[in-house]
């Protein structure tokens, strides 16, 4: 998980900041991991870093998953595509991909389960820590609250959001709605192949979606980040299938 951040640290880099005193006083197991982003040609110096507050004792949305490290690196490498775009991250948790997008000039809305206020509060703290101005929204997949109707993203991101197959249909319902609500939008997601690739393919067809791109997550991340990550992680880009009649 955050081992990837440590592996990118060069000796001249300052350590990540300490967690805020009010959180430490509560006795929670908070750590801050630092994630570096570098030009491919300059492996020993970095362009910027993002600090992430993680809480190992809490739920899934409170630490940085490998899928998020891979998606964040993709956003950084493809930055000309993301700069200036309206972007929504679903199930963002600690939000590394969305924060990288904000850093390179995207207009970012970070979302996570409306029923997990501690995750949303952690997102706020992480944005403040990195001095990044992102909108934060409680958005539960498959629930139709008013703010969802106002989102018209150019790009939707989701890292490790395909992990509980009972949520897949709800997630696809929300993604399909967002894709329909804004022309030309794409959904870019990274997932562990353990999650059932065939089920994802089946649901894409069911929801009238098509795969535009499928990449092995390890095919583009730098070796020093890959060495501390494990698993079969894929990046897939999804759009509405024009051949389907959408209601
Ligand atoms: C495995 S974590 C991934 C977090 C983060 N994207 C990452 O990769 O580090 C899954 C995330 O999805 C969120 N989530 C789970 N079920 C959800 C739902 N029904 N609606 C919205 N978010 C949900 C969790 O709160 C959590 O942040």
Automatic annotation (TrEMBL):
GO biological process: methylation
This protein's record includes keyword Cell membrane: no
Family to which this protein belongs: Belongs to the methyltransferase superfamily. METTL23 family.
GO CC annotation: cytoplasm; nucleus
Protein name: Methyltransferase-like protein 23
InterPro entries xref list: Methyltransf_16 (IPR019410), SAM-dependent_MTases_sf (IPR029063)
Record key words, sorted: Methyltransferase, S-adenosyl-L-methionine, Transferase
Transmembrane segments: none
Domain of life, per lineage: Eukaryota
Ranges for region Disordered: 1-24
Entry GO MF terms: methyltransferase activity
A Pfam cross-reference name: Methyltransf_16
Biased composition (Pro residues): 13-22
């Amino acid at each position: 998980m955050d081992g990837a951040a440590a592996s990118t640290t060069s000796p001249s880099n300052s350590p990540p900041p300490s967690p805020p005193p009010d959180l430490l006083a509560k006795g929670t197991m908070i750590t801050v991991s630092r994630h570096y982003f570098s030009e491919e040609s300059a492996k020993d110096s970095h362009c910027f870093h993002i600090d992430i507050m993680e809480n190992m004792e809490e739920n899934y949305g409170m630490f940085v998953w490998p899928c998020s490290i891979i998606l964040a690196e993709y956003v950084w490498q493809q930055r000309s595509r993301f700069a200036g775009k309206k972007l929504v991250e679903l199930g963002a948790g600690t939000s590394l991909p969305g924060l990288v997008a904000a850093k390179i000039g995207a207009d970012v809305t970070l979302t996570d389960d409306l029923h997990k206020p501690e995750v949303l509060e952690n997102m706020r703290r992480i944005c403040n820590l990195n001095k990044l101005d992102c909108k934060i929204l409680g958005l539960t997949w498959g629930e139709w609250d008013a703010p969802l109707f106002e989102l018209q993203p150019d790009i939707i991101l989701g890292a490790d959001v395909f992990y509980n197959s009972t949520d897949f249909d709800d997630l696809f319902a929300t993604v399909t709605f967002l894709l329909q609500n804004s022309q030309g939008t794409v959904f870019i997601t990274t997932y562990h192949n353990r999650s059932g690739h065939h089920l994802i393919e089946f649901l894409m067809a069911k929801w009238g979606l098509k795969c535009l791109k499928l990449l092995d997550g390890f095919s583009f991340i730098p070796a020093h980040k890959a060495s501390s990550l494990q698993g079969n992680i894929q990046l897939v880009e999804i759009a509405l299938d024009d051949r389907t009649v959408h209601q």
